[in-house]
Fold each of these.
Amino acid sequence: MHNLIEELTFDFRDEYNRKPIAEKVISLLTSSIPVSPMVIDGGWGTGKTEFCLKLIHLLKSKETNFKPVYIDAFQADHADEPLMTLLAAILRLMPDDKKREGLVKKALPAIRFGIKTTLKAGVSWVLKQDAADLAEDFESDVKKAGDEAINNAVESLLKDHVNANESIELLKAALTELVEKKPIVIFIDELDRCRPDFAVTMLESIKHIFDVKGVEFVLITNTAQLRASINHCYGPTVDAQRYLDKFIGFSFTLPGSHSTNGHDEVYSSIEHFFMLAKESEFLSDTFLSGGGVKSLVETLVKVNKLSLREVKTFIQYLEIYQLVTEMKGLQKNIIYGYALLRVFALFINCFHSKAKNELSSGIVNPKGVVPILGINRLPNFSDGYPVPEEIVAAIICRANNVPGAELVIQNGEEVEKWENIIVECFSGRISRSPEGRINIMNDVFKTMRLG
């Protein structure tokens, strides 16, 4: 991971214009405003990790006193003890062996207590309930069990609880001394991918143990998933957002669009698609970047809110199709109607398995397919010549002209107009029935089964 941090910089690649965001993050972290823990929010596959690594590199290049530390929480959650994960990251910054040993000794009682207790007891400790409250909680269990062994266990646990609280104060004092001249910023990535109990305990450790001046935290995560983890641990009746708000100093969402000239907004995932297509040895010489097909791709990516990672998956499916068709499936100068239907079929194959299975079985359900194109109703011809996604929607609807169904073309005059446009998209060379055109898509599904 260290080498990756060194390699990933905004100078190397910043196609989504995110360096200005990183500059502002650093300004906040190094200011007197209490923004820690800061949350950089975003859905899975939106480029959070890459942004984080570039941000760390940028922070290192600045003339600040802050020392950054990176933790991949998902790789660490097998250890079962977030406190040890955090301490290990801090210890890596301490070259002095004696200081390291001293910090570990101060932390041991707290770590031991966290490991020995159940989740319920651990949460009570972290939430700083006093020993009497904790004793009360266990006393009811003791009375029920009536077992002397349990009584001894409770007594031992309460003793550890007192030692742990004392240890936390010593640990905080040691940390304060450690970061007095060199404050640290701990970046915790992938917290949303961790087990719910690990993620929640990590949050609580940050709040109650590492709430020390000079120790800043940045969490790179999906807060929707984090809220789900909280509800998993405490139950669905807990207001997860209010609970989360207690731990967060400042939060912002990594934007999915950026401005190229200060005015026009560009959807990052769309730009990512065409960048990957251009760089691909299989797709660089295809029809994907031309005219109507380009417009269709832009619509599919935007309407379905594809993340950067999902765009990469879509590109991979297009590459596979191009390879197994011996570079002919998406070749240039292909008939326009085939180009539209093949791209749409590959998109369905990649992201909409239910629609794919229905179409493969001969079921044409406009309600289940056409909304993928972002269309709720076909336009009137008075609105002008239809755009590519409307043409694809019309082909789907023509294949299931059942009276009463939504989105279906029923007016005779409209049917004739749409049919003329569709035939024109196939250069007048197609004589298939409306249902037969669906087979163009089914051929794609069959090809992707490697059949």
Amino acid sequence: MALGNNSGKGTARHKGQIKQSIKERRDANGFIAILSTARQGTSACALSIGSNEYYHDGSGTFPAADDKVYSRKRKSTRYILEDGHYKMHNASDERTTKNIEISSGEVSRVTACP
């Protein structure tokens, strides 16, 4: 056995990770970018929008009930936002802001901010 020979075990695992990463990116192709505050325990409407860029899998400008919101543009459960409240706006419409409540990994409620 030659020194440094690992029988390709690490290479196969690495190829699997690359394939998974490519699939996550491809599946997230239609995600819509939104800007948001960090997670809050209650309504985030009083806060200023931060530079946190998130992505949702819905079809509208804002996430809707049952949509998922991700911290990266990848369709993977490890990037789903934590439960809580987030004030969000779409980059194309900074005047309209909404409080998005996430529960069990999905949007449970959307409320317009004054």
